[in-house]
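dumping this here so i dont lose it
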C-alpha cells in the first residue's frame, strides 16, 4: 500500500512538472533589421569626405615627423663622422643634444597622434550622432523591434549575428538618409 501511494505521488509530481514545462512561450512579435555600420560609413559620401580630411591631417603630421627624423639622422651621422676630431666636452654636448631631440621627437610623435585623433573625432562624431538618430527613426517609423549590427556574417561574426536574410539589411536606406541629411 505504501508502495502504491509513493508511486501515485511520483506520477502526480511528474505530471505537474511536465505540465509546467510544456506551457507555450509567447514569441515577441515585430520586425527585425540588420545594418553594417562600417559598410554604411564606407558607402556614405559624407563619411568618405570626413575620412579624406583625416587622411590629409595624417599626411601633414607625417611630413612634420619625417622632417624631424631626417634632421635627427643627419645629426647622428655628423656625430659619428666628426666625433674623432671633437673634444670630449663637444662630443658629450652633441650626444646630450641628440638625446634631447630624440625625446622631443617622441613628444612630437605623440602630439601628432593626438592631433589626428582630435580631427577624426571632430569630423566623425556628428556623423555618428546623425547615424544613431537615423537608425532610431527608421526603427520607429518602420516598426522594427530590433536593429542588429551586422559587421560580418557566419562564424567570423564579431557581433553574434551568424545569419540574416539579405532582405533584412537596411544599409541602403541608412546611407541614403545620412547623405541627404549631412550633405
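and the seq i came up w/
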Amino acid at each position: 500500500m505504501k508502495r502504491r501511494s509513493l508511486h501515485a505521488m511520483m506520477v502526480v509530481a511528474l505530471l505537474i512538472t511536465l505540465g509546467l514545462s510544456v506551457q507555450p512561450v509567447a514569441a515577441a512579435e515585430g520586425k527585425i533589421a540588420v545594418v553594417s555600420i562600417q559598410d554604411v560609413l564606407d558607402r556614405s559620401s559624407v563619411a568618405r569626405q570626413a575620412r579624406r580630411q583625416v587622411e590629409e591631417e595624417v599626411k601633414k603630421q607625417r611630413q612634420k615627423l619625417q622632417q624631424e627624423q631626417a634632421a635627427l639622422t643627419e645629426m647622428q651621422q655628423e656625430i659619428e663622422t666628426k666625433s674623432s676630431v671633437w673634444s670630449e666636452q663637444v662630443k658629450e654636448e652633441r650626444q646630450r643634444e641628440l638625446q634631447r631631440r630624440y625625446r622631443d621627437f617622441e613628444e612630437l610623435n605623440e602630439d601628432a597622434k593626438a592631433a589626428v585623433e582630435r580631427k577624426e573625432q571632430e569630423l566623425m562624431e556628428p556623423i555618428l550622432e546623425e547615424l544613431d538618430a537615423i537608425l532610431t527613426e527608421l526603427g520607429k517609423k518602420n516598426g522594427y523591434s530590433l536593429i542588429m549590427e551586422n559587421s560580418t556574417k557566419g562564424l567570423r561574426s564579431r557581433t553574434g549575428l551568424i545569419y540574416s536574410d539579405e532582405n533584412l539589411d537596411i544599409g541602403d536606406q541608412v546611407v541614403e538618409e545620412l547623405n541627404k541629411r549631412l550633405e
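The mean pLDDT is 84.
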